[in-house]
Amino acid sequence: MNAQQRELRALYQDTDERTEPFDPMTLTGEGCVLLAAEEEGELVACGALKRWDTESAEVKRMYTVPDARGRGIGRALLEELQARGQAEGYARLVLETGDQQAAALALYERAGFRRIPNFGYYEGIENSLCFALPLKPA
């Protein structure tokens, strides 16, 4: 997960190294889901759902290591997160990604996510793009 943060800092030319290391405990609790994909004992991708409100969960920490990209692993994780969101009874998923992350934008748009106004922490952040996906009842 720290590799994700380093990659994003480089992409957005953010030199602030004070970012706290990722703590998986922030994605635990009622209504949260944390998924990971491994190959030969190595973590290659991850993604999570975090309860946003009673009706919504936010897709968080979607990341695939560079050597594993282009093989559908991220798509498979996102599909499983959608299924888990339905099983948890959420009516929709929301997410935020950056405007320089073309592969992520394409993944989310192919999955049916549509742009919405920036929400919560992301309000007013120009290079943040927020999306939502309605879920069918399980």
UniProtKB/TrEMBL annotation:
Which superkingdom?
A: Bacteria
Q: Does the keyword Electron transport apply?
A: no
Q: Which UniProt keywords apply?
A: Acyltransferase, Transferase
Give the source lineage, highest ranks first: Bacteria, Thermotogati, Deinococcota, Deinococci, Deinococcales
Q: Which Gene3D superfamilies match?
A: 3.40.630.30
Q: Where is the N-acetyltransferase domain?
A: 1-136
Q: Name one Pfam family in it.
A: Acetyltransf_1
Q: Does the keyword Acyltransferase belong to this entry?
A: yes
What is the protein name for this chain?
GNAT family N-acetyltransferase
Q: Which CDD domains match?
A: NAT_SF
* A GO molecular function held by the record: acyltransferase activity, transferring groups other than amino-acyl groups
Q: What is the species listed in this Swiss-Prot or TrEMBL entry?
A: Deinococcus arboris
InterPro entries in UniProt: Acyl_CoA_acyltransferase, Bact_Acetyltransf, GNAT_dom
